[in-house]
Amino acid sequence: MSSPRTGSLLRHRDFRMLWAGDSLSQFGYMVTTLAMPLLAVKTLHATPFEVGLLTTFEYLAFLAIGLPAGAWVDRMRRRNVMITADIGRAAVLATIPLAAAFGALTLWQVYAVVLVTGCLTVFFDVSYQSYLPFLIGREHLAEGNAKLQGTQSVAQVAGPSIGGLLVQALTAPYAILANVGSFLWSAGWVGRIGAREPRPDRTADRHLVREVREGVAFILRHPILRKVAGATGTSNLWSSGGQAMLIVLLARKLNLSAGVIGALMSAGAVGGLLGALGARRLAGWLGEGPLTWMSVAITSPAALLWPFLHRDWTLGLFVVTQLAISAGNVIYNVTQVTFRQRLCPDRLLGRMNASMRFLVWGTMPIGGLVGGALGSTVGVRTALLISAIGSSLAFLWIYFSPLRSLRVVGAEEEPVAVG
After folding, report:
1. Per the structure, how many domains does the chain have?
2. Which domain holds residue 226?
3. Which pLDDT band holds residue 418 (cuts at 50, 70, 90)?
4. Which residues contact 279 (CB under 8 A, 6 or more apart)?
5. Is residue 98, in this structure, part of any structural domain at all?
6. How many Cβ atoms from other residues are within 10 Å of residue 11's Cβ?
7. What gap in Å lies between CA 28 and CA 90, rounded to an integer?
8. How many helices (H) and strands (E) does the chain have?
9. Is residue 7 part of a domain?
10. Which of 392, 394, 391 is nearest to 231 (CA)?
11. Angle in degrees, 0-180, between the axes of helices 48-64 and 363-377, rounded to the nearest 10
12. Cβ proximity of 70 and 212 under 8 Å
């Protein structure tokens, strides 16, 4: 592992390689995030329930293989897993424009593509979060996470606009080619990283179930991490269904073009960039614990305005709500991911990150089903209102926990025994 001799990771060559690879892939991902539901709504004429089902298949992998993925990743060199996942995701996504070119694209193929892509994303994300502490050292995690979240925020600003224009110019199936290229770009840059992890210990008595249980136990027995898991999982449950119905509202009920939808999403995402830039300073001012719950408690209720959007001045209010929610989400993520990595011993990082993803992203396929079912029964606007109420209450997990008043989380804390 190489480490920067000064306080800035800009002088850290291997981090720059990781950052460069991540940057463009985030833009490609944001294009697909907009293009996939628009493909379902505009091209394949999906119902609200079928759009919710798209979210279910997109995140089902975190529920289905999220736990064993961490144990598997801890047995492999994480850099190699990331490269393989990037190439695999590019290949799978390329089947959508290929099928569209032959007039053979169906909604079930889209479901299959997002499911397989989600499985590969599980392995990439677990490896990515577990690899960063090795690459830059735990003392630089706050800076590293802030820079990576900042790039994601820039992608959230520009990506939807680019995606909307690509969807209008090329149609949704061919806009996805942007993400195919971005994953290949990411694989190339990650492959240039010079630091090599030591070969993981392959002891004869390693047992998959035992290792998975150890990762889950580390979170559930930790007084801070289990509350973070509860808050994030609850928020994701409701927001995943809400986001799916939001696209239905904008694209079908309000009949906005892909370009307008992309511009609205991009304008709101500026808040994420501001959140990334201010996260470290706010943590030093307020403390990590208070900032964690305040960042979502203050901003999440902005989604309560979404059910009342129309093709008028209320779209301006939508941009304001997106600014607030994006800023809050990024501040929350920078803070909680940093102290999660700080709290966990190296040998458990893969399993901890996988177990956390299982607990907090595993609620998203359920949320997609709930959102789609609500949208098809009580209406899209009512579904958005229920989802916003649920997301607004998620902070209570952290508010009623030891984390509420901690200024620095885990800096001098011994890892919790998992037995």
Report:
1. 1
2. 12-195+207-405
3. very low
4. 146, 149, 291, 330, 331, 334, 335
5. yes
6. 11
7. 11
8. 18, 0
9. no
10. 394
11. 170
12. yes
| Contact assessment for residue 147 and residue 71, using Cβ atoms and an 8 Å cutoff | no
How much is the pLDDT for 410? 63
d(CA 403, CA 235): 17
Write phi, then psi, for 405 (nearest 5 degrees).
-120, 5
Q: What DSSP string runs through 284-350? A: HHH-HHHHHHHHHHHHGGGGGGGGG--SSTHHHHHHHHHHHHHHHHHHHHHHHHHHHHHHS-GGGHH
Residue 233: give its domain's CATH number.
1.20.1250.20
Separation CA 368–CA 371 (nearest Å): 5
- Identify residue 232 by its one-letter amino acid code: T
**Cβ atoms of 275 and 153 closer than 8 Å:** yes
The tokens for 373 are 């079912």
Contact 342, 141 (CB under 8 A): yes
Q: Is residue 417's pLDDT more than 50? A: no
Count of CB atoms within 10 A of residue 384's CB? Answer: 28
51 domain residue, yes or no: yes
* Tokens linked to 354: 């996988």
List pLDDT tens digits, range 343-362: 888 778 777 877 888 899 88
